[in-house]
Amino acid sequence: MxxxxxxxxxxxxxxxxxxxxxxxxxxxxxxxxxxxxxxxRGVDDPTMRQIGEIAGRTGFNISLALSxxxxxxxxxxxxxE
Length: 81
Known about the structure:
- This protein is an all-alpha fold.
- The protein has a domain at about 5-60.
- It is about 50% helix and about 0% strand.
- The longest helix is centred in the N-terminal third of the chain and has 23 residues, at about 5-30.
- It is elongated and about 40 Å long.
């Protein structure tokens, strides 16, 4: 399998963020605004401020956590990659 590019990793991260935000809307029953839908659909990338505002409106703390699976599988990110 080919290594993921920097852009691939960014897109995967954004998918995770969008999924977390979508789950907050789903469980809270809060209706997303037009701007929220643009984030959820990938039209716009979310900012930290927008994520915080969504968390406040939905009543959920939104967090992401990284944990190293194993030394063999983890690859360090090089600056300028």
